[in-house]
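Regression check, zinc ion case 331:
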Amino acid sequence: MKNETGMIFAERFLRHDTGPNHPERPARLESITTKLRETGMWERFTHLGFEPADLSWIRRLHEPSYVARCFAACESGERTIDSADTVIGPESAEIAQLAVGGVLAAVDAVMAGRVNNAICLVRPPGHHAEADRAMGFCLFNNIAIAAEYLAVQHGLDRVAVLDFDVHHGNGTQHLFEHRRDVLFISLHQHPATLYPGTGYVHETGRGEGEGFTLNLPLDPGSDDDVYRHAMVFKVLPALKAFQPQFLLLSAGFDAAKDDPLAQMNVTPSGYEWMTRFLKTQAQTLCEGRLVSVIEGGYDLRCLAESVLLHAGVLLEPAESNDMMAVKSGFF
Ligand SMILES: [Zn+2]
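Current build output:
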């Protein structure tokens, strides 16, 4: 098995202009790429080419009227869409379309076996975006469209989306809560204490999708141990029961201890542990097929350090499951 990790990044993602003082700013990705270059890790990735996604993929989950409205708002010079916190510039819809295209290219590369796994350093983020509206800095739901693409284009019957961003992935949940072919698991700060106010334990899916949404709200102040416990005792059994053919990560790094938008205490090494744990599960369950897509993370130092360790684990040679388990601290 090759030991290659795909990288999705384009300078154009920095041109999604959210103006001064917005937490979701171009410097986020710059801090990550600078760190990866300084440490020499950048050259170790297989840098994947990509194009803007065909709009038909975006329109499969987002209402066509919303997609059109998003492009029109950018073209007409509007500065926000649907809520005051979701700032747009003239190129934002096109850049969001490019971000989706990047994630789909990562999925294709993993499915074709060109790389083992991949990381997508994209902006704008996606997991809050709903079928009919932008929300929480997100325009198009990158991860959800990737899950749909895996089901339709690659014919997969079971795709798991694991969202460890500190905010609940409301958009992803709502797009799939009625379906049983996509398992959505979210670990987030308790909705009574943090935006967007959804993601309670009792939200478990609807109709045919009942039981295929798993929300794991965590108290403010939760640290690495709390996340490890949730991973081992909640996430692992759910993944094993579902037997996914692909694991998608909504990788937000805003549960970091210094993040300005939330009140959690995860350290960079906590993210490293979680990554190794999830990579191990992907290796056991689905031949290591895993694509990580950046969502939030607003303290630049924590973000860069955490993504460095996250990406470093993805780059590690595929080892025997026993060795991975030892490294994950199971024994
Ligand atoms: Zn977030």
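Comparison notes: Residues 165-167, 252, 254, 295-296 surround zinc ion (CB under 6 Å). The mean pLDDT is 96. No diff flagged against the previous build.
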